[in-house]
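Exam revision sheet. Question 4 asks you to relate a sequence to its structure. Input first:
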Amino acid sequence: MFSEKAMNRALTITLALLLSTSCATSPLGRKQLMLMPDNELKRMGLQAFQQMKRKAPISRSPQINAYVRCVSDAIISVIGGQWEVIVFEDKTPNAFALPGGKIGVHTGLLKVAANQHQLATVIAHEVAHVLSRHSNERISQKLALEQGLNLGLAIAAPQTATGKSLLGLLGLGAQYGILLPYSRTHEREADLLGLDIMARAGFDPRESVALWLNMNRASNRGQPLEFLSTHPAHQTRIQDLKARLPQTMELRRRALANGKNPQCTTSEIGEQESENRGIRSDP
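Answer key, C-alpha cells:
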C-alpha cells in the first residue's frame, strides 16, 4: 500500500510528464495544454447532448429548423465532418457546440440574430470552440491544478462527483445549458476563428458587429444572456472584429467567387422579429 505522500509524488511526476508531452497548438497559433483523450471528450459530449435532447423541449417548427439547418450546413461545408443540429425551445439567446459533432441553437437566439449572417456569427463562434479544442484545454488546465482529480474515474463513471465536475468543465450541467463559461482568451479566439469560418462559408463578416450590438441591446432590456457571461466587453470585442474585417472580407470575396453564397431566410421569422424589436434584418 502506497502512502499518501508517495501517491502524491507519483501523481506529480505523472502530471509533469504529461505537461511535457501534451502540448498542442490552436488553429490561430496559440500554445495549448491537452491532457484529455479526444475520443473520451467526444464521448462525454455525446452523452451530454443526448441528455439534453431527452429533457429539453425541441422545436418542431419546420420553418425555424430549415432556417437554422441552412445556416449550419453552410458552416459545416467549410469545416467538414458530420454534425447533428438541434433547435431547442428556449427563450435565452444562446447556442453551443460540443465535441462529437453536436450543435444546439436556442429559439431565443433568433430574436437577437436578425439575419442569416448574424446567426452564422454565433454558430461559427461555437464550432470554433470545438475546432480549437477549448473544452479539452479547460479540463486539462483544471487537471493540472487539481492533482487529486481522478481522470480515470471520471471517464469510467461520469455520474460520480468527479465525472460531473468534468461534464461541467465540458460546458453542460444539470440545467442543460452552458454551466462553466470559456475564458476570455478562448472567447476572443473563437470570435476571430469564427469570423474566418463564416466568411469562408460566404456570410458577411461585417454583420458580426451588428450581432454584438443587438446582444448589447437585448442585455440592456434585462434579457438573460448566459452567452455573454464572461465574454470580452462589447467595445473590445467589436474593435477586435473590425480589425480582422479586411482579412475576412477577402475570404468572403473568394467564397462568393467559388459559388458559396448562402440564401437562408424565413419570412415568418424576419417579419415577426422586425415588428417586435425594430432590429435591422436586411440580408
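Marking note for examiners. The radius of gyration is 20 Å.
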